[in-house]
DNA sequence: CATTTGGTTTCCGCCCAGTGGAAGACAGTA
DNA sequence: TACTGTCTTCCACTGGGCGGAAACCAAATG
């Protein structure tokens, strides 16, 4: 029965996107079979769609026959939120040069922080986040500072969920977390100590845009320097103010391609 | 006649990708009608596909109802060539800090240079290139240096095409360009003087990988400093060597999602 | 308030692009 | 040679995609 056993209600578009997203979970290049499994599609269907995506440059095929996301996709995606990234990057770089520590800029995407910029030196640091990566908000300094200054309903909605325990030090008690956020709002910055990953701590300040919280700007340091983190506060606040000044003229809607719900 | 006048042979996939690519040409957010025009699709078809793309986060809709590329796309695309970018970025940053000039890293994509990294300060420079952007190879220093060290057949293929004249100073004579490339290969670096854009000049050195040319590393400066460009050569060569060392262990095929033809 | 203008959303029956099981080709490996 | 895992091609069936048309909506205009 050719074509009989098809899964109804599944659009072609959803299949194409599922194929692309299959590359997100597993690092490195995938074989056709991997893609078929990852996207939950029959092999022959996968084969056809993958071939077309490759023609368009959205996937590329290495010498070994395995596939990976193509440069065309990356090229296209550079247009997303370019204004914000272009405007903010030099300042994040300043932050890095002035402190010598890994500097990062993140925004809220749903219930997570999404890292959109990250400047680091050649020295090795235990890294949990990466550009384009997500982390739970309550475990990171940037996340906490965003949450603290976010609108009331966002905060309560967040605290009414199960809070993931990333390390033994992650704060997951909703009540105490609410208090911590209150305190962050008062003091104007947030910190974490080995809450995402053992061996590293972080500090972050808010970046506002048109009165609302727009992003979080932070530093990641080795745990050893956790005690003296706050000495970076003046620089952090200064750079944050500069980013705010550099982005005021950018209309909110073109800042990022995020569907605010 | 519903569904009668359809354009045959056009796959759904191609329509979806055409919609995404429609955002590349025109800056800023697009209305549904704009997208339909840009992708050459009927309005109702566009509407259906755009709606699904939006659901998946590949497009986002602003308060005004216009569409732009979604953060989901950007997020996915960060996985493309991450190894190369992550490894190279700190060194490009060094190049910037050491020289104070806009530093950039580019690779060849077909007959053009594709800028994959670009570090610049807050001072304004006339910029022609941008991360994710392309330029003709013969008009840029990074492009020329890549072309010069590229395999013979690539070079001859390139010179047998029409060479675009970007500014009055662009070298477009194939014969003379071949000589220039020869000289670049001997001296180990390439320069341009207002060949892409009036007011700026550039200098670049090759970055090799497994014996082949892998990328071009360069600086962009204001034309005024064109005469003394070569004083940056030692730094450029040093940083290039460091990038080579940092990327030797990366398998060629996972460097970038480029289909080498 | 009626009208025009410029855009977005919904509708619906036709029909071909998409489908996926199966078989064939291919490359390692035992 | 047989086996195994993977990729590629084939092909007849069929429902998801299609897109013209009409309804809808909002803002500008008379």
Automatic annotation (TrEMBL), chains A, B:
InterPro entries: GAF-like_dom_sf, HTH_MetabolicPath_Reg, Tscrpt_reg_IclR_C, Tscrpt_reg_IclR_N, WH-like_DNA-bd_sf, WH_DNA-bd_sf. Keywords: DNA-binding, Glycerol metabolism, Transcription, Transcription regulation. The keyword Transmembrane does not apply. One of its GO terms (biological process) is glycerol metabolic process. It comes from the Bacteria. Residues 72-249 form the IclR-ED domain. Residues 10-71 form the HTH iclR-type domain. One of its GO terms (molecular function) is DNA binding. The keyword Transcription applies. May be an activator protein for the gylABX operon. This is Glycerol operon regulatory protein. It comes from Arthrobacter mobilis.
């Amino acid at each position: 029965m050719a074509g009989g056993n098809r899964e109804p209600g599944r659009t072609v578009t959803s299949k194409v996107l599922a194929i692309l997203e299959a590359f997100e979970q597993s690092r490195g290049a995938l074989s056709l079979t991997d893609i078929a499994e990852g996207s939950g599609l029959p092999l022959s269907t996968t084969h056809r769609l993958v071939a077309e995506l490759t023609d368009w440059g959205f996937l590329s095929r290495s010498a070994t026959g395995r596939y990976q996301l193509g440069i065309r996709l990356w090229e296209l995606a550079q247009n997303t939120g370019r204004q914000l990234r272009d405007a903010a990057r030099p300042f994040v770089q300043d932050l890095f040069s002035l402190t010598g520590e890994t500097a990062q800029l993140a925004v809220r995407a749903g219930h997570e922080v999404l890292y959109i910029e990250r400047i680091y030196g050649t020295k090795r640091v235990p890294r949990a986040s990466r550009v384009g990566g997500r982390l739970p908000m309550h475990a990171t300094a940037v996340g906490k500072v965003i949450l603290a200054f976010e609108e009331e309903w966002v905060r309560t909605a967040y605290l009414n969920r199960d809070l993931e325990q990333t390390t033994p030090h992650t704060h997951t008690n909703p009540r105490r977390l609410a208090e911590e956020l209150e305190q962050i709002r008062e003091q104007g910055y947030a910190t974490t100590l080995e809450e995402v990953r053992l061996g590293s701590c972080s500090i972050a300040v808010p970046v506002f845009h048109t009165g609302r919280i727009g992003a979080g700007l932070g530093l990641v340091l080795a745990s050893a320097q956790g005690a003296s983190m706050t000495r970076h506060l003046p620089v952090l606040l200064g750079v944050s103010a500069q980013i705010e000044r550099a982005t005021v003229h950018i209309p909110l809607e073109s800042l990022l391609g995020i569907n605010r719900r």
